[in-house]
Structure formats: structure tokens, C-alpha cells
Amino acid sequence: MLQRRHLLAAPALLSTRPARAQARPFRIMMLLFRGWEEACDGFRDYFAARRIPVELIVRDIAQDLRRVPDMVAEVRQVRPDLVYVWGTSLAMAALGPWDAVDPAKHITGVPVVFNIITDPVGNRIIRSHTDPGRAVTGTEYIAPVEVQMRAMARYRAFTRIATTFNPNERNSLSVVAQMRALLGDAVMELPVALDSARRPDPDSIPDVVAQARRAGAEWLYIPPDTFLNNHRAVLTRAALEEGLPCFSASERFVQFAEGLAGLVSRYYSVGAFTGFKAEQILRGGRAPESIPVETLTRLSFLIRMESARRLQIFPPVGLLRVAETV
Question: What is the pTM for the complete model shown?
């Protein structure tokens, strides 16, 4: 298990106003699902920019939810000033439903901010975006599904799209359900295969992509999905070989693989925004349940031009005026 500590009291990068003196750094336990990444950088750097001394106690379950009870027990023992939780699956396991918290299993008695969460209301992490219902707040990182679909159609109109996902991931299932409600039969749902232990099989990814192409899909939509992220190179390369453009809900499939496009929130920026919410609690004295859960107001339309060239599917000129090319 990754165990890392950071002690930060760096000069301000965004604000020149001096910070109020603290008796000690704020202690924040960062509970991670798949290791340290760009959103964690943004969260950490926010405090440095604001000259807020913090001690970050980092714990990573490495995608193994069986480690959650030990993590929760450590939170009870350490009693940090704040807990940061990364990811939908970990938040659901460590926090429980907002209206059915079990103090024997879930984190209680400590303010919590979450980050890189999909549909926190639908997954019962909070009661509503404006009224979380408990001492938990945070950020939601993907654009609304309807907005993503409109962005995809702006690049290239479609009548039929396919989506693939890990059927074990609640965040993916939530997004796919929203797509189904919005587009009906225009959506072809192609979950990756599960092996005999009901674990997603990466070897099935090329076959799923080929199936989408044979069925006449004009786009392959990639929802937020940790399993697919772990195999993003295989997925996006298979799509290129099939001549099928990929549109992603998260930046990694375009920025760090060969996906064609996506309407995304930058992980780093979402992490910094979560840091702002943490500051409201730690220095502003606000109750987490009084702080709304929000998305970034500015999204990035990413286009990978090399993939556009290989597919011979180039974006409209008007879209290039607002998009970021990578």
C-alpha cells in the first residue's frame, strides 16, 4: 500500500494576500483508489498557492475495495482535520449511502471532500447537489451526459453510437443508464466480457470494438471507467484500427491515448476546485453539508489531431475555434 506524507507551506502562486497564522498544519487524509494522479496534484498545489500549511497523509487501496475497512479504521484512529476521497467506488464503500450510514463500517465524525466522482446523487453519496445531507461535499467531474452528446454531434452527427464499459463499475453503469434514458435505441450497450471470477477481461476489448463497428456504430463513447482507463491504449488503438472514432467523458483517453475527442474537465483543475472546498471547511469554518457539490464551469473540448488524420474525420472549422488540440 502506498504510504506517503507531504508537508506543504509553499509561497503563494495565485494569491498575494498573506495567510492567517496556524498553530499547526491541517492534517488531511487522502484516500485514493488507483494511486496519485493529476487531480491529486491540483488538490495539493491549491494549498501551496494559498499558503495554507497542510500535512497530507496518503493511503491508496490500489483498486482493492477489501482494504477499505482498514482505511476507515485508520481514519478513526488518526482523527484528521479533513478526509479527501478519490473516486466513486471508494466513496461508496468508505462513506456509505447518505441516508444509511453505518458508523461501524463508514467514515463519520470527520468532514469529507470527494473528488473524481460520477453521479454522487444517483449513487446515494449525497442527498442533492445543493443539500448534501451530511458532512460531505466535493466536486463532480464529468459534464452532464446530454451536454456530452450534443458536443459529440457537433463534431460529427450520428444516429447510432456504441458504448463499452466494465459492468462491475457503478459509475459507468450510471452514465450508461443516463445515455439510455436520453437516446433510447440509438445507444448500443457493449459491456466487456467477465472471466470465470467475474472480473473484466481486457482481452475482450478488441472484440467489443469490432462488434460495435459491424453493428454500424458511428461513434464509440467511453464513459468514466477505471478498468477501461487501465487499458485505454488497447481500447483506443483497437478503435482506430476499426475506423471507429472514440469520444470520451474523461481526458486520459484523448490526452494520454489515441481517442479522437472528448468534452472533459481537466483532472488537475477539478483537484484544485476540491481544494477550494476544503479551504472553506478548514479555514472558513463552513459545515461541509452547507457547501454545494459542483462541476467546473469551464470544460475542455479535446481533439487528438493525429487520430483525426488517421480516421480522416476532421472537426468542423467552427469547432476548432473553441477546441484544444493535442
Answer: 0.84
